[in-house]
Structures are given as C-alpha cells and as structure tokens.
Write a structure and sequence with these properties.
The chain is mainly beta and 538 residues long. It has one helix and 44 strands. Strand 13 and strand 14 form a beta hairpin.
Length: 538
C-alpha cells in the first residue's frame, strides 16, 4: 500500500489528494475537489486517474490556477504532470494535462519563494519548478536547484502549512503618553496592512513595518495584521493596550435636550480610580439637565489626570434675521450656528456659515440633537453706480466733475463733487449714493488736454444768476447778437438748448431739473463761455 500527498490551494478553493491501494507499478487514484474554506465542506470532485498514473506528490501553483502531480509508475509513464484549473470542469481539467518531464518525481512542496520543489530518489539535489504559474512549455524546471550538502533525497518532503512560516504574531510596545510601536516579521511576504482598531482616528491603517500609531482613547484595542502571500490573505489579531494621561473617551462637551445625563469615562480604564467634584467615586455619574461644568480626577497607571466635561443646552434657537440689501460687488457672512447641529442651505452648503454676494432667497434647515428648525431671508442688490469723470476746459484749467452722490473723496484730497485742476496727471474719485454704495472712477489728463484752453475759455463777460437756482436763471452779457446756449449734466448729456439774443437779459426756466451740478455753454462764432450751474430746489 502506498499513500500520497493531500494539499490545499493557496486561495482555499481546492483540495488535491493522491492515494489508495497500489504501488509505483499500479494505478493510484488522484482527485481534485472543490472546497469551501469557511465551512470545510467538499462540494465537488474530479478524478484524473487512469492506468498510466501512480500519483504520489501534488502541489498547487501560488495563483491556484495550476496543479502539479508526480507519477511513480515506472512501467507506464513516470513524470511530472500539470493540470489547468481555469474552470472546474472534469473534461477540461483532464484534457489540459501536460507532461513536463519523464523523470521520476515524488513529493512536491511549494516554498516561501513561490517555487515548487520536488524530490527524486537518491538525488543529491532538490528539483525546482521555477515559475509554476506559467502553463505548458513556458514552465521552467531546474533539476539541480538545491544542493543537499552530500545527503540524498528519499520519497518525501516535510509537509507544512504555508501560514506556519508566516509571522503568526506581531510585537508591540506601549508606554505612557507615547505612540504604540508595532513590528512584524516581513520575510517571505508580498505586503501587509495594519488595522489599529481605532475608529476615532482618521489614520487607522498602515502598510509598513515597523510602524507607530497614536491612539485617541486609552484602553484595549483589537489590532489586526493582514499578510498577503501569492494573493492569499492571512489575518492575525491581538489585544493591544494603549496608555496615556488623559480620560481617553470622555467628552469635552455633552449636549442635553432637558433630560438627566450620565457622564462617564467611555474607555473604563482598568486599575483606575475616580473622584468627581460631586464626591462620587464611580466611573460615571448622573447629573441634572442643567448647563454647567463637571470635573473628574482619574488616577491610573500613568498617574493622575483631571478632565472637565461641559454640559450644554442643545435646543436650537436660530433666526437668520431681516431681509438685507447689499451693494453690487459687496458680500457678507450669514451664520446659523447651533450646538451639535448639521446644516442644509438652499445653496447646497452644509456648514454653519455661508458667504453671500448675490441677490435671492436664502434658506437653511438646521438639524440638531433635540429638534429641527428652518428659516429664510431675502437679499437684494442695489443697482450698479456708473462711475465717471467729465473734464470741462476752463481758462488755464480743467474742471473735473463726477456723478451726483455723497461723501466725495478725490485722490488730491478734495471732498466736493467737482474740482479744478491746473496740471496733468491721473485723478480718481470715490463717492457713494443714497444707498451707501461706493463707486470709483478715474481719468488721465495730459498736457495736450490743456492746449487752447484760453481760446475756448470765458471770452465773454457773462453774468448768470442766481446760482444756486431753483426755478429760473437770468443771463446778462456785454455781447450782442444771437448765441447757442446748451445745458448739459456732468456726464456730458444734453439736457436743454436755446438760441438767445444777449443784447438783453434772458430768463431760462429750470424748475423741472433735478438737484445737482449742470454745465452751461454759450457759443457764437469764435466766442465761447462755460459756466457751472447748481440746481437746488427747496
């Protein structure tokens, strides 16, 4: 009687076994089984036995897609056979058989280097399948791979579970008020991943070793080490104790809806004693539903620490306020902050405060521990102020006039609507309208702008009165004849025009004009006069 090897695939999906009544001269049965790694149940079997096989050794490739059998049948076909497991189909598996070598192989065993090693009777070396994941002729076999130091191989090799050679443990060092240090044996593995069991820390995993982790709570934590070898995951868990001088789990702030509260140290520190300001010595106390602060002293392995827990009323009382009007280009922050709450704005924002710079209706839904409230308000934008500066030539100067508004401030320091300049340069003004919205305007005056000012200035002896005026103005002059008279606003827009004979006094009605500064221009042939008129109704 001769019994052969039984192996499991690295991915836990298959079993292979060879054995039965027979010898190396007679058929020995060989099977491939489907295997449920979670239940241990064998769910399907494929037989690859025939009259030429006397199977003894078996081993899966690291990717679990190839299966190797050694044949001891000296009479009908010794050798090393390969079967592909692309699908668990009996006909396809049997038809995929590939004979690699007509050499007697016995035991087969995968190593940590992902090679499959085999024995040959009385051989001084172990043979090796160098790339067992490959198929057919692409597989490379080295006959003399491992020298046995003068010894010879028999039939077998030590059978072992691969995970036995992986680090089934990890070490850690925990000191007071320091991160916990972890280390694992990484020899022969492809990769690893730590799960530190710390749900309160956003950094709860790592893929390196050694590594350190800072816990946010003191006490025991379940640490899991995941090791990956040839696509197979091995998992090891261990209880790790983190120690430091803080409450570790106690809340700095607790919100109440008007009910009595239980204040406690959530980590339940082992070997610790407690002393609350109330005189209680338990790890938790019950307090009335009143806002206030409670202090506890905790004495543990790292000494004594003191923590204060604040109790806050969590009912929401938020109003967004009245409708608001803002200037174009301005913005403001609207806050709906509430204790321990979440926010859903009509803008899609989910924060307590938003910045508003456009008109519209804004609403927010605030959901807290105790209740949910809604509120809304309207924002209106004031119209845009058209900022400009009009330049009017005078005798040896230029009159700069800007729009009608309030709170004028020129770059030269003047605070009037109009200024008189006598030199080139850049002139700017800032002023506000009745809504308090500010606008800026600027103009560049060059030397060329001053050319001919004397020629187009006040060549006439002109008397305009009253100034300021409310209903009418009167014009007297030393000139005779017809003149074109134009009345414009400071932006240069023509308001009215007349044709007057200046040989006598002329009366012009202005009662339909708005309050402000206007420009009066008289022209006839080569004569011209420009004057400023202020309209001011009572």
């Amino acid at each position: 009687m001769l019994a052969g090897q039984m192996k499991s695939s690295p991915d836990g999906r298959y079993l292979s076994d060879c054995g039965g009544v027979g010898s190396w001269q007679y058929p020995i049965q060989a099977f491939i089984h489907q295997f449920d790694n979670s239940t241990g149940e064998v769910t399907g079997t494929v037989s690859i036995s025939d009259d030429t096989l006397a199977t003894y050794g078996s081993e899966f490739s690291p990717d679990s897609k190839q299966l190797y059998f050694s044949n001891l049948n000296f009479v009908n076909g010794k050798g090393l056979y390969q079967y592909s497991l692309d699908t668990f189909d009996s006909a396809q598996i049997v038809s995929s058989r590939y004979l690699h070598q007509s050499t007697s192989y016995y035991a087969l065993q995968i190593g940590l280097d992902k090679k499959i090693y085999g024995t040959r009777v009385l051989a001084t070396h172990l043979a090796a399948i160098e790339n067992p994941n490959e198929v057919g002729a692409n597989v490379v076999i080295t006959q003399n791979s491992v020298f046995l130091n003068g010894d010879t191989a028999g039939l077998g090799l030590p059978d072992f579970i691969q995970s036995y050679f992986h680090p089934a443990y990890f070490d850690y060092t925990s000191k007071c008020n320091e991160p916990v240090h972890f280390s694992a044996n990484t020899a022969g593995i492809d990769s690893l991943r730590w799960d530190f069991g710390d749900s309160l820390n956003a950094i709860n995993s790592s893929t390196v070793s050694p590594v350190q982790h800072t816990y946010l709570t003191q006490g025991f934590h379940t640490v899991t080490l995941h090791i990956y070898v040839s696509g197979v995951e091995y998992t090891y868990k261990r209880q790790v104790y983190a120690r430091f001088g803080s409450l570790g789990g106690g809340h700095d702030t607790i919100y109440t809806c008007g009910d009595s509260l239980s204040l406690n140290n959530l980590s339940q520190l082992p070997f610790a004693s407690y002393l609350w300001q109330t005189g209680d010595t338990n790890s938790s106390i019950v307090v009335p539903p009143n806002e206030g602060e409670y202090t506890v002293s905790v004495t543990g392995q790292c000494g004594t620490v003191v923590d204060t827990i604040r109790v806050v009323e969590a009912h929401i009382n938020v109003e967004l306020g009245k409708d608001t009007t803002i200037c174009y280009g301005a913005s403001f922050v609207k806050s709906a902050a509430a204790p321990n709450a979440s926010y859903a704005w009509s803008t899609g924002d989910s924060v307590a405060s938003i910045t508003i710079d456009t008109s519209g209706v804004y609403s927010v839904t605030i959901s807290g521990q105790c209740d949910t409230v809604q509120d809304q308000f309207n924002v209106t934008l004031n119209p845009i102020i058209a900022g400009n500066i009009i330049a009017q030539p005078q005798t040896g100067s230029i009159l700069l006039t800007t729009g009608i508004g309030f709170d004028y401030l020129w770059s030269v320091g003047d605070t009037t609507q109009a200024i008189l300049i006598t030199s080139p340069g850049t002139y700017a003004v800032t002023y506000s309208d009745s809504n308090g919205c500010y606008v800026e305007a600027s103009i560049i005056i060059t030397e060329d702008d001053f050319v001919g000012i004397a020629d187009v200035g006040n060549d006439l002896e002109l008397n305009v009165y009253p100034n300021p005026a409310s209903k009418e103005i009167f014009i007297d002059s030393n000139a005779n004849g017809a003149f074109d008279v134009k009345l414009s606003d400071v932006a240069g827009n023509l308001i009215k025009q007349w044709k007057l004979d200046l040989s006598s006094t002329n009366q012009l009605g202005i009662d339909n004009l708005s309050n402000g500064l206007y420009i009066l221009t008289l022209e006839s042939n080569n004569l011209r006069s420009v004057d400023r008129i202020i309209v001011q109704h009572d």
